[in-house]
Design goal:
Elements: H1 13-66, H2 75-90, E1 94-101, E2 104-112, H3 113-121, H4 130-141, H5 156-160, E3 163-168
Antiparallel strand pairs: 1-2, 2-3
């Protein structure tokens, strides 16, 4: 290999993970686009809600099994799982300022891969928030309340210029 190129063995674990994440998100975007072409935006949104929510539930269940967690018992365990999932599954494609105040988790989204993609495609104002549905799937897997405030709907960034969610953390052990 010349100095300008790396061999596959020279890719760091972080670079490999980022390639996998970006490839998965490209697949997700292409799936959405093709579904919108075939069924219209409403049909794509309806299908995306179901698929992304279930995908999120399954990926969180896999993560929990891998970590030996059968049920979220404490707010700290929730925080750890949430942070691990964001880091593992989203990496640099997503970023949010988060606060945990007692039993409330607030996320102020700063970077959202989905918003960037639908904005580029010119459908951001029509897009139902897939990442919010993925989070709902994570919460279902953790057996946590899924009532986000505000509720998941059309892309907040496209309509208000910002995106923020709040979640009341309720576990069997209390907040």
């Amino acid at each position: 290999m010349d100095a300008d190129h790396k061999s596959p063995e020279q890719l760091t674990a972080t670079e490999r993970e980022e390639l996998l994440r970006r490839s998965w998100m490209a697949t997700d975007g292409l799936w959405y686009y093709q579904t919108a072409q075939a069924r219209g935006i409403e049909g794509a949104n309806e299908a995306n809600i179901q698929v992304v929510r279930e995908f999120g539930r399954q990926e969180m269940r896999r993560l929990m099994r891998s970590l030996g967690i059968s049920r979220v018992e404490t707010a700290e365990q929730y925080r750890t799982l949430f942070s691990t999932a964001v880091d593992l599954y989203l990496g640099s494609l997503f970023s949010a300022e988060e606060t945990f105040d007692g039993d409330t988790h607030t996320m102020d989204v700063k970077v959202c891969f989905a918003h960037k993609g639908v904005q580029k495609a010119g459908i951001d104002k029509l897009y139902h928030c897939g990442p919010g549905e993925r989070l709902t799937g994570w919460l279902l897997a953790m057996e946590m309340p899924t009532a986000l405030d505000p509720g998941v709907g059309l892309c907040q960034m496209a309509h208000t210029g910002s995106c923020s969610y709040r979640l009341k953390i309720v576990t069997p052990s209390g907040p």
